[in-house]
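Hey team,

Filing this mostly as a record. A colleague (T.K.) asked me to run one chain through the structure pipeline before their review meeting, and I want the input and output archived in the tracker in case anyone asks later how it was produced. No errors, nothing strange. Just documentation.

Input sequence:
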Amino acid sequence: MDAQLAVIGLGSIGSMALWQASRLSDSVVGFEAATPAHGRSAVGGDTRLFRMIYLGRPDYYPIIERSRGLWAELEAETGQDILTTTGGLSIGTANGSFINSLLEATRVNGAEHSVLSREEMAERYPQHNLRPDDCAVYDPRAGVLRTDRAVSAAVAAAQANGATVLQNTPVDSITETDHGVVVTSGDRTWTFEKVIVASGGWSRRLMPDHLKAVTETHRIVLTWFIAEDGTQFSPENFPAFSRWYEDRSMYGAPAVDGVTVKASVDGPLAGRARATPTRTPCPENSPGKKPKRSPRSSPNSSPA
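Output structure:
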């Protein structure tokens, strides 16, 4: 037996699993096909929104509270700034299903919030171009997570706790035996008591057949826009946001680099399903390099 636990894939899920497991035992091994937080992983894109209020899911609130505490612990262990509180805006039609569902969630879980009218939004956040019947729910504890930092910090913390990290080691197969779980990469094999598979878009080929049949990998397109005035879109002046109009939704984050504003349509683009990625996870971008950005300017935001 080589170790108690293997974690395959050290992205947004696997890195955190490795960190938490390393707090319980140093008999933990993490496998990463490239390098942690490489440019073609699902963690790419600089930021992810962190919200205390979720559409239709008031039961998420205690989980999110716990996660805030864990982010603070990871920051304390590594000295990295990972979660930036910017506040968060959820924009939609006043008395529409999106806004009403959010407000119902706050009634159930007691999440701190305020409702901003179109006029209040125009005064406080003129970067957004609202429709006449729009309003916003403001979440003062929302913010953005720096995803590359989070993954790198979690892996570093796990290694400090005694975990082993094998980079550039793509896993070819996982086989359950009477004596443990055998993990194979090239001509090398390891045996573990248990294995966690967290390899994102590359997980399908490691799944049993009954899961492969119902799993599809999609490309998620992220877009950035060059701000005419970067200070208007700084984390201090421009909260993270989500916006719904009829059956369309988008989300965005402030210009953490001082120049570009993230504003993207939710979900995979229609008709853009793609095959499960090949074993090489970084065919275009070098490790840590950002995806290409749009050169367009974005003086304000409005629904796509």
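Quick notes for T.K.: The chain has two domains: 3-41+149-212, 54-146+218-265. Confidence is low (pLDDT under 50) at residues 270-277, 279-304.
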